[in-house]
Amino acid sequence: MPRRQFIADLQKAQEGTLPLSIINLQQGEDDGQFDFDFVGDFGAEFPEPVKVTAMIADVSEYPTAHQYMIFCGDDAPRQIGAALQNVRGTDCKTVYELIDIVSANLTKLSPDQDGDLQMEDSQQYDEEPLEDEDDDDGDIYDSDHEAFDFGARQHTTPYAQASPGAKLKPSDRIFRARIRSDLMAAKSAGFKVGHLGGLMDGFNCFVTISIRMSKLGISEAAMQAWQVTPTDYLTLLIQYPNGYKSNEELQGFDSLRLAPNIGFRVCAGKKYKPTLEEAIKAFTIVKKHERDSITTTELPGPEDEADESSVRETFISRPLNSLLQERLVPIVRYRSSGMDWRGAEDWYSEVASKGATAGGDSVPDKFFEPELVHDALPDLLKADHYGAPAVLHHSFPLLAMQFLLRHFVRCTDFCLVCHRQLNTELEAIKPYVCDQPLCLYQYMTLGFGPSIEHEILAQPYVVDLLVSFCYTSAASRKLREFPDGLALMVPPVDPSVYNVIDPYAGSGRRGRNPAQPEKKDPKLKSESDLPTYEVGFDRERLEILFFDKPDTCPVRRGNWIVVKVAGTLDGEELHCRVAETTYYPSIKIDEPVLLRQPSTITDQQVPQAAGQGLAPPAAKTITPATTPVWAPASFQCYEQDFEQLDKNAKCLAVCKLLDTLPNVKAMQEFLAKRHPADLKHWVERISPAALSLLRWIIASNRACIMQVDGDSNTGSRPQERVFGMKGYIEFRFAMGAPDKQTRFLAAVRKTATRLSLTWPTIFAWHGSPLQNWHMIIREGLNFKNVDHGRAFGDGVYHAKDAQTSTGYSGRNFYGGGSANQGVWPHSVLKISSALALNELVNAPAEFQSSNPYFVVQHLDWIQTRYLFVQCTPDDESLKNDNEKKPTNAYPQDPYLTPRGMSDAIVIPASAITSGRAAKETGRTGKIQGQSPMKKMKGHGGFSDPINLDGDDDGDSVATDAEDLDILFEEEPEPEPEPVRQDNQEVSTRPRGVETDFVPGELDFSKLPLMPVPTYAVSGTTKRLLKELQNLQKVQDATPLADLGWYMDTEKVENVYQWIVELHSFHAIDNKLPLVAGMKKQGIKSIVLEIRFNGSYPFTPPYVRVIRPRFLSFAQGGGGHIVMGGAMCMELLTNTGWSSVSSMESVLMQIRLAIASDPPAKLDVNTRGDYGTGEAADGYIRACNTHGWTVPPGFKEMAYGGGAGGAGGGY
User: Fold this and answer.
1) CA of 1093: how far to CAs of 63, 369, 1103, 1104, 1107, in Å?
2) At what angle do helices 1143-1155 and 1018-1037 cross, to 10 degrees?
3) Can you give the pTM of this predicted structure?
4) Which of 19, 78, 664, 815 is 20 to 30 A away from residue 353, measured at CA?
5) d(CA 166, CA 177)
6) CA angle, 338 as apex, 317 and 334 as ends, to 5°?
């Protein structure tokens, strides 16, 4: 009861520790009223306690939809009354949460040690607002001001500045220093750090910690399955509603005080932090009448199309938000006793489930055992801030991000509901739940699973494939996992009349014995045990009349029933929904679905074709015909509890429910016409049980399957087909854990190096009976089960010829059955067999066997790539009878090239990354895998095994100036400006590594430059001015040698033309030939000219070297500098460019590329500067050689004249 809950919460708050400055909590005189005293600081303004009263207008709405009125007496100080009037965010809060919010607001009114009260400054709102990256951020306060408690008082404004007359407390400097220390720890660990709101003033604020997806060691297939891209940022958004709290402060809070003081949201986007408006939206609860709706926000979903500048939820944001909010702080608290992450999580679960004592002495030793982590994971994921030595104060934002990465990257290792680590060897590319029925129920009902509507709209044939696999497996009675826990009520099933395959009927192939019938539990209900109602049925009017009228109507509107009409074919059923019961004993039904079932099928009993008596199972909407009024009939309700059925009956129930579903094209058409698109609204056609089963089939798929053929609406560009599989439908196919690609690539590299392989990988076929594929795509390839014998040893069997694998791939491998047995009647594809094309490590001599089959015993040596299915579709467009070879074929070992059904296999190079990754010698690989700052300082190695385009911060956005400023220490007092001497630059830049470079010595007048551009575009000019401003701030704040580039922004006369000097290459590697060469020649810097066209940032800048000259690659040089001085980098072409790239990151990438292997070498025999024409010619040659796209308008920009990209080709 609401009132009882209110009284219980009030008593709990009275018995516990009250928030700061709150005493004497008492129940009030009226219902829903309570009083408490605020004592403030007894040293000054508030010598007497101030009585505060809170009242709930309607206690019956507590604790889900209630509102508070808060006030104090007339004799209370004026500022107390004003502060209470401006308290926001109190709706639907518990008693304790309300008191904590009031305490946080009133505590800010307490005077400091000098007796100064921080009052609002009358000039405060006349100050210029802080500049933000987005121009429209200034107008967001109109609708969302309440989320930040905006009001008349200064302390509730997120961007408020301290009043000039107010004195800082001694603790203020310590407070800000701790914030800087915590954020610097996160930045030093390789993350981008940002903030929004009044962080340094102790007000409502947000802290963001983010990292690029490409740095997380996630395979490309996993990124596709997770609906993210390598250039996306994974961002942890932490809200501090009552000011920043350190790790130590949070550990001191009990569970009641945590929620009002900290909140978490996990999101993804193209920028490293959201705007203030987006941050507020992320914490805006949509379902305001449900207290457990904390994870439902106003952010776009993972499948929604979002703007480049916006953030969205990830595919598992909701369970991760819940995990962080409920468990992170207690788990970190347990870590202080010496446990690692796994031990602390397991101990938390132990305490929560069994009520164990959390004392350090009582914790069993097993919780202190270290967790084994795979060596192939990037260092970023293996790092542990809590385990780092000599750390006095731990950064809570860094701990939170490391915990998030653990559960995001390794999400398939954990249950999405209870978050326990799964004790299974199963490897999957998508996360799921544990085997607890309650977890499955919550997963499906709380919205943690994928959107089946999105899958049907985007990839209908993948849905058809998944349903067909499940149907065949169920019809063969091969299902091992069932949708238990979903409270499914299914129609009655009769094994004697259903479309099932007896897997051991007939000859019992390979010596198998006939299957023994499963013993029936006498407690389970059979079809005859369920109530049967004798009625009359009018086909034309879709009405049912009860002849023997029961006292009450046995059905309700919305129930699903199964009608059998006397005189029709044996086994014919009408499945329909009850539409109206108002005129009982007559009820109306919706248009029914007709199911015709043949008799029991064996290999000797083949059903007759349609029109010859029995027909294969088919489901269709009946056509009204002339029939007798009130034809004798009977019906049964969907009242069979699915969980009470035995295994065989469950398989039959799954088949019957799937028989009632429409085909995927019909579902796609229905969803395309409805807004919002949701199958639950098609109530007259799809039963709730069938819809839940469909959701389970799609949600439990743990592989990544992407359409190559057909009408895929995923938004990705069309993919080239594999040549050699004429007549087969093709899917991109990946299985295994998200780091499976990492482990596979590690094995490829290791083996290729050890055996000096020219061809690091080979391809081969794996076939399996159709009924096995439902479990294969959930469990991955393994050799636990013996289906076809193991004549050549243990391992996963592969064939070199597709014809061999197809012999193991059909429905009828075991003997018996007809062409239509076990086929989903409504399948658009009508699948008859399936086989996978896998990529293997090219070491046949080390396989378990290599003749006549490849038997691979190491699962990390196998990576699935394609799934091919043989179909007889009605849609002619799906019959791939015309083949053409890919324009850019992937090179294969000519002696081990597999053969397809029609020709030798030719694979498009764009689909395979492993061979390219194994052959990388460092020119690309050494630039990837570390933050640019660490590489500039020469720290660490380049061991990231993931080779994804845009892996480094080359595509990164610039760090906002306010996020950089907050990381620098406060000066105790301003120092006098240095006196500028002749030819000496005034600089407050911090000192770093020693360098011989002296800024300001370059004579611009002697440089051979391209003609000054005459074009200008408003948006481009504004973007370039912002880039210049950011570069100047970074340059002023970073030591010269650590930065490695210099630009005199005061000499930039045209924002479309820059001169930049690169220097201090010894800070990267003192042994570079370039370092010795420049020192010997007395050269202090490399001079670059950078030109932008009118379409920047949607096209890349053009970068060329002016001086000195370098050896070309053919002459033994390198450093990505081609003949003519242009930079040969995919990043600087339309192929590799990203519009979110910042010039700061571009300059870092160029400097690192010049120093990469093979490094650049000076040409000491040729004098003079590079000319403008030869550089442009060299750039175009490089693009043509590598197949890169030249930006439009390049010739006009590089050779002079024209519109510089405003139109036309290059």
Assistant:
1) 59, 59, 12, 14, 23
2) 60
3) 0.57
4) 19
5) 19
6) 45
